[in-house]
Amino acid sequence: MNTKKVIYTSETHPLTWRLRKDREPVWINEYCNKNGYLAAKNTIKNMTSEDIISLIKESGLKGRGGAGFPTGLKWSLMPKDELMNIRYLICNADEMEPGTYKDRLLMEQIPHQLIEGMIIAAFALKAYRGYIFLRFEYIEAAANLRRAIIEANEVNFLGKNIFYTDFSFELIVHTGAGRYICGEETALINSLEGKRANPRSKPPFPANVGVWGKPTCVNNVETLSNIPAILLNGVKWYRNISKSEDTGTKIMGFSGRLKNPGLWELPFGITAGEILEDYAGGMQDGLNCKAWQPGGASTDFLTERHLYLPMEFSSISKAGSRLGTAIAMVVDDKINMVSLLINIEKFFARESCGWCTPCREGLPWIVKVLIAIENKQGQPGDIEMLQQMCHQLSVGKTFCAHAPGAIEPLQSAIKYFREEFEEGISLQSFSNVKSIIGI
């Protein structure tokens, strides 16, 4: 097994260098001894809100939840009107994307890093209260975050008059009810308000009308965890640690039947093949890479010939997929793509909020057709019908991005592995068609 040994330093691994070898959480004393809360203290005492937003814009930090929207730009969309003095900051910690577990690592093992990032973000956004909307199943993360919040409150890093200034910020952990759709920020906001987790119509956008009708900014766990290092070390350093036009580092990973599946903090621009071979140790003996998804179950499949691609937003997009969460899943050559698709599409069908017809009715129908194909009972035209369904559930044809994400793995699997679908079309069906039309 060829796995790369990595030396973690604050200069090269800003997100993970504080991790303990025994995997125990880094609590407040240890975190402070490793430069923790220094960025928050310096920022609140010496910078203005405008200065921070400008710096985050200049850093090029993009959202790490999957969409890759520029963080500084998102912050700048918050209203400038000082009369709108009730504002909220929400950390999207729902992380329900199958195969993705990067935010869990950060929350369980370095909870104070997220809290510090939220303090700085709240100061920049002039938010007086923050919520960490946490996936229901992340029980250990919830316990560790709540303990870390108590620790931060006890030393005046949270609460009233933080660092003995005029700035006050309250932080609350809110656990969801276990719904994938809450990864969509407006569905998350509805759930936080105690409503059904349906996405909202946009506009208005959360920056103007968010939780309880007030200006709200929603950022991902990994996004917010980047903030302290940028403020502490500067924009030039942050841009230079990347190998790509996408700045900074990213927690990336590979799962599947590999010798060493896992997570690693790596610079943007490293190739998928390097991660697969040098960090994940390559495929298990007797197996070959058949396909892979770059960033979660809702991203298009790519093939072995795409492993040369750098892991960055633009390159993966040009190849016909999305970087997503950058936690890749490899499919080996022993797995049937139709069977795999049934598993994926069942998940997305179950997790649909049911708000719009194409998603509510279309995804279960796709599952039904796939099951028939798996059982060699597919009908002539089924593959074409699946392709038509992919078109009807694509971007702009549904209320939110749930269905477009759900059909990405399906459309790419048909594109690259159509013969596996064709094998499920019943020969008896062909015979029946021929007899009907008199051939």
Automatic annotation (TrEMBL):
* Family annotation (Pfam families): Complex1_51K, NADH_4Fe-4S
Keywords annotated in UniProt: 4Fe-4S, Flavoprotein, FMN, Iron, Iron-sulfur, Metal-binding, NAD, Oxidoreductase, Quinone, Translocase
Cofactor entry: [4Fe-4S] cluster; FMN
Q: Which InterPro entries match?
A: NADH-UbQ_OxRdtase_51kDa_CS, NADH-UbQ_OxRdtase_suF, Nuo51_FMN-bd, Nuo51_FMN-bd_sf, Nuop51_4Fe4S-bd, Nuop51_4Fe4S-bd_sf
Please tell me which top-level EC class this enzyme sits in: translocase
Span of domain NADH-ubiquinone oxidoreductase 51kDa subunit iron-sulphur binding: 338-383
Q: Which reaction does it catalyse?
A: a quinone + NADH + 5 H(+)(in) = a quinol + NAD(+) + 4 H(+)(out)
This enzyme's EC code(s) = 7.1.1.-
Gene Ontology molecular-function annotations: 4 iron, 4 sulfur cluster binding; FMN binding; metal ion binding; NAD binding; NADH dehydrogenase (ubiquinone) activity; oxidoreductase activity; quinone binding
Keyword Translocase part of the UniProt annotation: yes
Chain's role: NDH-1 shuttles electrons from NADH, via FMN and iron-sulfur (Fe-S) centers, to quinones in the respiratory chain. Couples the redox reaction to proton translocation (for every two electrons transferred, four hydrogen ions are translocated across the cytoplasmic membrane), and thus conserves the redox energy in a proton gradient.
Q: Which family would the database say this protein is a member of?
A: Belongs to the complex I 51 kDa subunit family.
Subunit structure as annotated in this protein's UniProt entry = Composed of 13 different subunits. Subunits NuoCD, E, F, and G constitute the peripheral sector of the complex.
Tell me what this protein is called. Answer: NADH-quinone oxidoreductase subunit F
Give the originating organism: Candidatus Pantoea edessiphila
